[in-house]
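User: I'm preparing a small set of examples for a lab meeting where we compare how different chains pack in three dimensions. I only have the primary sequence for this one, and I'd like the structure in token form so I can line it up with the others. Please keep the answer compact; I'll paste it straight into my notes.
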Amino acid sequence: QVQLVESGGGLVQAGGSLRLSCAASGGTLSSYSLGWFRQAPGKERQFAAAIGRNGVTTYYEDSVKGRFTTSRDNAKNTVYLQMNSLKPEDTAVYYCAATPNFMATTAHEFPFWGQGTQVTVSS
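Assistant: Understood. Below is the structure token output for the 123-residue chain.
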């Protein structure tokens, strides 16, 4: 089964950018669609972005549309989340998740999860 490890989180000022990476091992990334979720303190985990197995189909939560872009490099077994124009409300732990489904956007559809990486946006 696939294992996922996120990296790239950190502290950034509002308006800045970060790129998160999610490296997969133990499986072929092209067999999975990937999702990005985030969880702020005291809040439930929520969907942010997803990319289908074909690497073309993407979905974004409304609050991140136009600011976040997810992509994948199957040769490197890695998926990315480029985050631009960051806002303090984007502060959360960000998780990547994988599912063998062609595409998914809800947490219960993803059986495989990374450990998360902290993103903090200061005002």
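A couple of notes for your slides: The mean pLDDT is 96. The two ends are 40 Å apart (CA to CA).

User: Perfect, thanks.
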